Amino acid sequence: VAELVAKCLQAREMVYCPYSKFPVGAAILTTGGAIVTGCNVENASYGLTVCAERTAIQRAVTEGYRRFTATVREIKNIFVHLINSDVKDSFVGPCGACRQVLMEFGTEWDVYLTKPDGSYKKTSLRDLLPLAFTPAHLENN
Fold first, then answer.
1. Which pLDDT value is given to residue 85?
2. Are residues 68 and 4 in contact, defined by beta-carbon separation less than 8 angstroms?
3. pLDDT tens digits, residue range 63-73?
4. Looking at 53, 63, 104, 108, which residue is catalytic?
5. Which residues bind Zn(2+) (predicted)?
6. Three-class SS of residue 85?
7. Is residue 61 predicted with pLDDT exceeding 50?
8. Are 37 and 8 in contact (CB under 8 A)?
9. Widest pairwise Cα distance in the chain
10. For residues 11 and 81, is the Cβ–Cβ distance under 8 A?
């Protein structure tokens, strides 16, 4: 987790957020051990802004990754996701759109929310997005 937090903090340094001034970095770990990062990239047309989590997922997919794993404990098919923003006094979770995008790649993710000082809090994607719409809902249609 420490290496993922460090990569997340590095990713946050690469943001393009001239409008919100709210830098966010994200890091994910693939089953092969690669760490893929992302940062938020804003646009003057606010709806075209891409969050750090979606940037990391899109990078991972374009690099050929589809499966993710955790390093904190040996649980198969768990995805480690970390986000980091400048908010110092509380942990900030992914936005609703990012939660849905993350759900596309697995329902049993560990999510670590981090602060600028490197401290983190573990939660799960299921806790962040209860009663989620998943690919399984489309299997019988």
1. 67
2. no
3. 998 877 543 22
4. 53
5. 51, 95, 98
6. coil
7. yes
8. yes
9. 47
10. no
To the question of pTM greater than 0.85 for the whole model, the response is: no
Backbone angles phi, psi at 72, to 5 degrees: -65, -45
Rg (CA), the chain: 14
Strands 80-84 and 25-29: antiparallel
The answer on whether 119 is annotated among ligand-binding residues is no
pLDDT score recorded for residue 83: 64
Q: Would the CA dihedral through 90, 23, 77, 132 be positive or negative?
A: positive
- pLDDT by residue (tens digit) across 5-35? 888 888 889 999 999 988 888 888 887 888 8
46 is in an annotated binding site: yes
- Is residue 139 part of the annotated active site? The answer reads no
Residue with token string 């981090």:
114
Annotated binding residue at 45?
yes
Distances (CA, A) of 88 to 77, 85, 117, 123: 31, 8, 8, 18
DSSP characters over 37-61: EEE-B--SSGGG-B-HHHHHHHHHH
